[in-house]
């Protein structure tokens, strides 16, 4: 005796006993619980109780005992009566003309089988007659299980939507019971004997019945949902096919055993070869796999597409940026093609003239696309489609069918001839962004060609609108980048014009003063210095042009800030009273020409804000680890609001015709040297600009410390 055969009785006792307990508890809940299942509740209670009694007898006396066999028949009869009452939940008991004969036939077969069993009990036979009786009873059991499953299908499939929420629990319970019986008696019929393992596990059917009925009695059970993924369903279907293949193999083996020894070897070889060829064909044929997928989706699911999986795949495709993901245009094609199992595609986008031209192709190198794939007139016809994008089924047009004028599309859409002449072209998906056509995807024919239906149209239309937003966003980003390049160019020109304006102002002021002081030798000396500096600045302007509009300062070195301030003050002395009132020795880290440029900006702004004879004061000093350069005027001053929101904003100025970039550029250049530019101002009193730069020694210490830490 093997270990397995000794274990099955224990497993059987546990399974049958647990099933009996659960069924009896569920029957008690049905009897005393809420009024679910309407008029079918009493019959359902009896059926569940009889099932519990059958499982209890099987647990105590054994599944093969006489009482268990009789209780099995009573169980089936009780469930057939319960089925009849369940049909009355939504009023279908009054129109059971097609189903009532099947109910009567299944009940008659069960009574006939019960009569045979009683006859065998009264007059036991042996030998060949016993084997014939076993096959007959088993065949009747198969007929009852098959008929019961057909009735369950009619019960649930023909019910209304609201009735299904209640009927699904007893329908699932009966499907579990008769589904297990169908497998059990099929194996018994093929093997001409019962399987000890299946008999032991048969009590689990009672457990499933009790558990499902109890679950259906719970409050809120109508809201429970079981939605297996399509991957699980396809895998389950594959397992069912494998199981059917194994059953078929067992049946053929039994038939070969009965056929005799003469043809056994030849038939076995022929069957094995045929089966191997069939399996190899199924495994290697993409068309057959696609047909299987479509068949399962059509008959097992309410919708063709698993929208959650489609959306996740769509998002992954569009978010996969980089060399492996490919450019955006190629990802747009793939995102649409993956939904319909299309192997290739084309993307058409507008050119500068508004016509659609080929922008990208994916796995379709042989497509002959003209330079103008879709002229502007045809583009406008698609843009006139206010429904949000019509999906063109090209096979319909090739078959002579005109574009429908109903809910799907307006009749004026223009499809180019080259697209109809391309044999692989299958569908045309416009990409609409609001009322503008930003692209169009041409899908190649999949391995399994089918007619597009409303679900394809809806999904592709939504996907097209989403992809259109990606293309529109990319176009917007490219336009912004181009505008940014033009803006950078304009900023550079503005900075150049600002410097030229400062020089022109100095020369104009010098010319006016020359009319009054031309005979003064000191004035002439200062005028020559000013003219020489202006000429030097104009000559150096082109060399510094690449730096304008940027805020980077490289190659910092020790600079004598007091000497720079003295030189800048001398430049303005001939045109305006600019006084260096304090020039303490100050060696800062920076660039000499940059500090000079900042001072020129600040002093020129102070001159513009002051009266002609109002002096400008410059002070240079040291404060802890920083050098300070202050520019003070007593001009018009600025409000606190303007200092906070407008002073350092480019192209905002309080002066008529001003560019508003002097203070902005001065602050950015000071920040680039590691310093700060502060301002204090009062309207009517004047302003004070303070340049704060790190001392050269302090900057060197900080750099050495940073290098050691690194």
Automatic annotation (TrEMBL):
Any one GO molecular-function label of the UniProt entry: ATP binding
Keyword Transmembrane appears in the UniProt entry: yes
Span of domain Histidine kinase: 495-697
Taxonomy, superkingdom: Bacteria
EC class of the enzyme, as a word: transferase
InterPro entries to which the protein is assigned, alphabetical: GAF-like_dom_sf, HATPase_C_sf, HATPase_dom, His_kinase_dom, Sig_transdc_His_kin-like_C, XrtA/PrsK
Annotated catalysed reactions: ATP + protein L-histidine = ADP + protein N-phospho-L-histidine
E.C. numbers: 2.7.13.3
Residue ranges crossing the lipid bilayer per the database entry: 6-30, 42-61, 102-126, 132-153, 165-180, 200-217, 237-257, 269-288
Alphabetic keyword roster: ATP-binding, Kinase, Membrane, Nucleotide-binding, Phosphoprotein, Transferase, Transmembrane, Transmembrane helix, Two-component regulatory system
GO biological process, one term: phosphorelay signal transduction system
PANTHER family reported in the protein's UniProt record: PEROXIDE STRESS-ACTIVATED HISTIDINE KINASE MAK3, SENSOR HISTIDINE KINASE
Name used for this protein in its record: histidine kinase
Organism of this sequence: Novosphingobium ginsenosidimutans
